[in-house]
Structures are given as structure tokens and as C-alpha cells.
Target: HTH cro/C1-type domain-containing protein
Amino acid sequence: MGTEMLGSALRAARRERGWSQSGAARELAALGRARGAPTASLASLKTQLSRWENGHATPEPLYRELLAELYGNAALAVAPVPEPPADAAERLRGLLAEADAVGEDALALLRAQLEASRRLDDRLGAAGAGAAVRAQVEQLARLLTHTPAPARRRAVAAVLAEAALLAGWQALDQGLLDESYARHEQARNAAHEAPAPALLGQALAGQSAVLSELGFPGPALAVLEAAPADGPGAAWAATARGAARAAAGDAAESQDAFAAAERAIRAAPSVPDLVQRGWALDYDGLHRRRSAALAPHGDADALAGLQAVATTDRVPVRERAALRADLALALAHRGAVEDAAAHARQARNLAARIGSDRVRRRLDRLPITRAEG
Model:
């Protein structure tokens, strides 16, 4: 069967058992544990189930075997056969026509659509906005591929870079590190074509964050060497360098990097960025990132700053959950177990609401699990 047919079969099998996608994810995870097979987190499994059922992705062999056993259908374990392609020339004509229809008005609508998704993400995280953002990235990538005119390509590339950045941060939060790295690479390439140095700097910062999450401090710093030399892109890269240095235990080098980021922000034009305001890095954003990075290393000023920003509602929910987790970690290291447990509970509640596997895994490393309860 083809990918779409496999997706329909998976959806029908799940509905036949009366399971929601969340329920199917729990059953699949339990089966994986029983068979000793490594599976993703529940939030990630739910996302993957949705993509498999919609025909947007094909389950890997391990998951096909588990799904076949879960649903009692051996045919699900067979690798999908590609659908017979339509006439290639006709398909290309259609894609070129679709891209040609995207003029300035349509591009403005695509920007507005992305801005709406970003605002939804600020409130609900990837759980509420992830599917919409992935669809926008796929649409914009298709348009860019089939747009021949250089000026129009640059305009589409700028919007694609923003969309891929948002998708990359969402995937990182969901624990989908391979997808996050790929989305940031997509944003990096689009930012080069736009050209958009500020977005390039953030794309590199995203890749650095993924590499740090994997425990690769050297590559996390090396990827930032391709950052712009000045402006907002340089500020993003310096901020990421500060976070990577702190994660590697080098507080002094981290301080220097954050100081460089502040100098880059100070040197940048002070005119508000009305087009890309969701991706801007200002003094407040730098302060939050510096506090989160250095508070666990005994920096009293950073801890005080983190305590001030972790409880505010003026930052996106994904960042708020991460700041709470960072504060819990910093307080636990100082022996303030009860305060750490209180912030850990808040962070865990936010993480459950938005499907943040990254925050949950960070909290699982805290030596206060029983105090949380």
C-alpha cells in the first residue's frame, strides 16, 4: 500500500478501537516498553501518529512492527510502496503555476498567517500551533522551489526562514532534535538566499541549541562561526555562544559572550522591527537568556534576574516553562529544595500543557522529585 493508504489504514484501525490519538500514543509507548524497543515521548508519539495518519510521513520499520502488533494487522508492517507518479511535466506545470500566483498581496497574507501562528504559539506552544506551522513551512518551501524570479525568490525565502525557525524551536521543545536541526538548516539556507542576516544568526543559534542538547559542546560553538559579524545576527550568535559556554561549565567565557551580545544589540539600529518583531532580540530577551544560562553556576545576579523573569506572564509560554525549570534547577543546586520543588511543579504543569518534552526531561534530572509531590 502507498503512504496515503497506510495512513488511512492506521486511522481506521485506531478508530475501530475507540482510541484518541493520545490514547493510541500511550498504547504504542506501553507496547514499545514491553518489547524493549526505544520509543519517543508521548507528546512526540502523538505528533508522529498524526503525521502518519495524514500521509505526511512514513513510520520507520520499528514503528511499523509495533503498529502491526498493536492493531493486529500484519499488513501495516510492510514498507509502503510509492504511489504511481502523475505525468511529471504536468505536475511541474501545476507547481510553477501555483508559485506564479503568489504576488505581493498573497505574500502579505502568508506573512500575516505566519504572524497569527506565532501568536498562537506564544500562548499554546507546539501543542496548539505545531501542525499549522509545519504546513506553512511545507507550502513556503514548495513555493520557493518553484519560483524562478530572483526578487520574488528572495521575498519568499525571507518568510520561509521565519516559518522554519519557528518550526525548529517547536521541534526542539518537543524533543524532536533531528527535525529541529533540519528545520534550522532550512531556515539557514533560506536566510542566506533572502538575504536576512538576523534570521541567519537565529538559525545558527537554533542549531547550536540542538547540539548543546545532544551534549556536543564543541560543534555547538563551531556552528556559530558562520554567523554575521555584526548586527542582530551577531547578537543572536553571541547569545547562543554564551548559552553553549555555560552548558559546558565555562562561566567566564559565557559572561564574555553575553557581553558581546549586548554590544551587538547596542550597536544595532534602534528602530523597532515591525515586520519581524516576533524574532527580535532585545535587552530583555538577552537578560532572560543570560540569567537562565548562568544562574545554575552560582551567579547571584543571574539568579536574582531569573527569579524576576521566571514568574512573568509577558513572555511566550514555551520560554516561561523553560525559565521555571531553569530556576528550579538553580535553586536546587543552592539547597533551596522547597522553593525549587514549587517552581518545578509550575514548570511541569506548563510543560504538560504545551507538550514540552525538553522541559520535562530537564525537570527529571532534578534531585527533588519527591519534594515536588
Notes: The domain at 3-77 is CATH 1.10.260 (434 Repressor (Amino-terminal Domain)). The first helix runs from residue 3 to 16. The chain has three domains: 3-77, 93-195, 288-373.
